[in-house]
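quick one before i forget lol
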Amino acid sequence: MKKKYKLILWDLDNTLFDFDAAEEKALQYAMEKHGLPYDPLCSLEEFRVVNDRRWKGLEMKQYSKDEVLIGRFEELFSQSDMDFAALNQDYLNCLAEHKSLYPGAEEVVKELAQRGYSQSIVTNGAKEVQDQCFYRSAIAPFIKALVISEEVGTAKPDPYIFAIACERSGWMEKASTLMIGDSLSSDIAGGQAYGIDTCYFNRSGKAKDTTADFEIRALSDILDIL
């Protein structure tokens, strides 16, 4: 028997939106604009190692948002004499311009809306990027609330950001709320800490240890669960 949910909380990057493709374009653009050589074989990989570690630090409250966004470039290009804030801004501008929905995301969100589900987004991304890509997207009319960590002052996996999302969505019953996301450390761990069911979006298909209530490999799989 399927469990009855009312509110669906979505992660944004690499769940509904293709962050990886936009990230590559944005990094190359920003580096080349600031006179840094972009190596297709290693630049993106090196950036992701530093970037992922910084975002994990934000989740653990070890870094501020600026220490993530600007600090990642300071760490990566420590020998360069440049304006790291400007480098980061050019990266963010390009990221917002190129980030787009995954194929099928619009159809899934629209179908769930037609079935009567309320849907909101909970994201740790930079506000100026998330605002721009979300509000120009086709899913915006179907989303009740967009909750961005930078705006509310707390980030996943802190349970408080999930409480804010539920309150802004007008639905506080945890038993009928489901969180869907691609990060075990922020989406799944955070949802569980708040006391709601979780669904792990395992895009890679690789086996991973997870205590999520559900696991999907494609966004359309959620339609068989809900």
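fyi The chain has a mean pLDDT of 94.
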